[in-house]
Automatic annotation (TrEMBL):
Residues 27-121 form the ParB-like N-terminal domain. This is Nucleoid occlusion protein. One of its GO terms (cellular component) is chromosome. InterPro entries: Chromosome_partition/occlusion, ParB/Sulfiredoxin_sf, ParB_N. Residues 273-282 have a biased composition (Low complexity). GO terms for biological process: chromosome segregation. SUPFAM superfamilies: KorB DNA-binding domain-like (SSF109709), ParB/Sulfiredoxin (SSF110849). It comes from Methylomusa anaerophila. Gene3D superfamilies: 1.10.10.2830, 3.90.1530.30. The lineage of its organism: Bacteria, Bacillati, Bacillota, Negativicutes, Selenomonadales.
Length: 388
């Protein structure tokens, strides 16, 4: 069964029958005043054949243009190939008219202008790139109308009806929008058959890049299928290997977490304020990740944990004069160390739990836990010196 191409005539023929569109006067405009429309995405091919026809029969149909803001030049809506053919004849020493028959159009929005460009090209032979670009430009235009008109049903069915094609044909064409730039270039250059391109649209961008490097220069459908299957087999093999490695690393991480929790239990119990501060911190962001900052109120939590204001405020004048401020200083230093140590343990515990939950078993992350454990060891030594 022959493949059905996109047929824009179904929509644009209905649109052209609107009673609001009336015949417009033909103006003879200087060829030098006509400029290419940047919105035109259609390929300009077979210029020599068209140039020969124009040389024999002249311009059969007026070009369509829009006056630009300068009021002097006109950008093309239709007639890009005809203008290119005229320029070709002129460059090859042929006599061409200085003025060209044109119809001046007016559009309210840029979308209307784009749609007019597509409408003007609905009868021409199109490359696969032309069809893909048509869909790329028309899809947002018709989606906006679909949401405004609310005809019911799904958008793709509505879009297909407007274009005069089946949903299955439209679906296959839309799949081509997923092609990577490299594979799309192959398709444009004829180095990748359309059926082979469809085979590769289901791959991720990274997998498509790998496929593009693996495909032979002139790839066949069978080559595309083989490359796709090879990529999927490799992906399944890598996933299996990672799962096995994650299982082994998970046991190691669980051991780290158990060690951390046991260490906290055997640790000398912190002051109530320090424990409260540690519990408040349990919902914070782990600072072992370089790209995640410490909590903004960290200094306030620390100040609350080591404060001795209650003890000092309750002293009488005589007690203050005879107080052992060295002892108070030692207590504050000790509480500071205990708070920092408890904070570190809490962060390591959260990290270990996250590692187990998210299966983040990279050597770098496990290594960071080891660094924190080393820090705790130094804090233990420092605490013993202060207490002693």
């Amino acid at each position: 069964m022959a493949k059905r191409a996109l047929d824009m005539n179904a929509y644009f023929n209905r649109a052209s029958q609107s009673p609001e569109i009336l015949p417009e006067l033909v103006h003879m405009l200087e060829m030098s005043a006509l400029v290419v429309n940047k919105q035109n995405f259609y390929s300009i091919l077979d210029i020599e054949v068209l140039a020969a026809d124009i040389l024999r029969n002249g311009i059969r149909q007026p070009l369509e243009v829009v006056m630009q803001q300068d009021g002097v030049t006109y950008r093309l809506i239709s007639g890009h190939r005809r203008l290119a053919a005229l320029q070709y004849l002129k460059d090859h020493g042929e006599s061409v008219p200085e003025k060209v028959p044109c119809i001046i159009r007016r559009f309210e929005t840029e979308k209307d202008e784009i749609e007019a460009i597509i409408s003007a090209n609905c009868q021409r032979d199109k490359t696969i790139e032309d069809e893909i670009n048509e869909l790329k430009y028309l899809q947002p235009i018709f989606r906006e109308r679909f949401e405004k008109e609310k005809p019911g049903g799904k958008f793709r069915a509505y879009f297909a009806r407007q274009l005069g094609v089946s949903e299955s044909t439209l679906k296959r064409k839309l799949e081509l929008l997923k092609l990577s730039p490299a594979l799309l270039n192959r398709l444009k250059e004829g180095k990748l058959p359309l059926s082979a391109a469809y085979e590769l649209t289901g791959l991720s961008p990274e997998e498509q890049e790998e496929a593009e490097h693996s495909l032979p220069e002139d790839a066949s459908v069978q080559a595309a299928i083989e490359v796709k299957e090879e990529i999927r087999v490799q992906k399944a093999s890598v996933s299996s290997t990672l799962e096995e490695a994650a299982g082994e690393e998970e046991l190691a991480v669980e051991g780290e977490m158990v060690g951390i929790l046991d260490s906290k239990k055997s640790r000398k119990k912190s002051s109530p304020k320090a424990e409260s501060s540690s519990q408040e911190e349990s919902g914070g962001v782990s600072p072992i990740h370089a790209n995640q900052p410490l909590p903004n109120d960290l200094h306030e939590q620390f100040a609350a944990a080591v404060s001795e204001t209650d003890e000092v405020d309750s002293m009488t004048k005589e007690q203050i004069e005879t107080a052992d401020f060295h002892r108070l200083s030692v207590q504050m230093q000790k509480k500071s160390i205990l708070w920092v140590a408890d904070f570190c343990r809490n962060q390591m515990r959260q990290t270990a739990e996250r590692l187990v939950e998210e299966k983040d078993t990279s050597k770098q992350t496990v290594g960071r836990i080891a660094v924190w454990k080393e820090l705790l060891s130094h804090l233990d030594s420092l605490e013993k010196k202060i207490v002693g």
